[in-house]
Design brief:
This protein is mainly beta. It contains two helices and eight strands; from the N terminus they run H-E-E-E-E-E-H-E-E-E. Strand 4 and strand 5 form a beta hairpin. The longest helix is centred in the first third of the chain and has 15 residues. The N and C termini lie far apart (52 Å). It has one domain: Sandwich (Immunoglobulin-like). Belongs to the small heat shock protein (HSP20) family. InterPro entries: A-crystallin/Hsp20_dom, HSP20-like_chaperone, Small_HSP. This is HSP20-like chaperone. Keywords: Stress response.
Length: 160
């Protein structure tokens, strides 16, 4: 599925989120950008855990009720940024949803960016071509393999 940002109906939300993300990423040196929750109850920021194993970064994103066709994962190699975006719907038809008595679950449009490697002290590179994602039991699991380097490449510089 194409990323949420390519869906015409989602453009106003995505543009708002992109503006927030740019502001949030400004002077700070965070490894991730949270898209701030605003007063619109149809926008949310899913909680995320990032694990750094020997061979990969593994992200767990809580998306209860999400369908895989409504979630997009994109890797921007130039920026070293993983973008997670999509929408979570409340199940039921309009008549049923009109009778909602209490709302605690987060539903609506979401977008989140994560810089990899996550810390500036990290030196691992990632293999963007081998990233995998699966949605299982309400958790989006994204595996970003680290590049294995057994040696360091040294480039000779000619002196003019």
């Amino acid at each position: 599925m194409a990323a949420l940002s390519s869906q015409p109906w989602a453009q106003p939300w995505v543009q708002t989120f992109n503006n927030y993300a740019q502001q949030a990423a400004g002077p700070q040196q965070s490894s991730e950008t949270l898209v701030p929750e605003d007063k619109d109850e149809n926008n949310f920021v899913p909680p995320i855990d990032i694990f750094s194993t020997e061979k990969a970064y593994v992200l767990h994103v809580a998306l209860p009720g999400a369908k895989k066709e409504d979630v997009g994962v994109n890797w921007d190699e130039d920026k070293g940024v993983l973008n997670l975006a999509g929408v979570v719907y409340r199940q039921g038809d309009e008549d049923f949803l009109r009778h909602l008595a209490k709302s605690e679950r987060k539903v609506g449009v979401f977008e989140r960016t994560v810089k990899l490697p996550p810390g500036e002290e990290e030196k691992d590179e990632v293999d963007g071509d081998m990233i995998t994602a699966k949605l299982e039991d309400g958790i989006l699991v994204v595996t970003v393999p680290k590049v294995e380097k057994e040696w360091t490449e040294v480039k000779r510089v000619d002196i003019e």
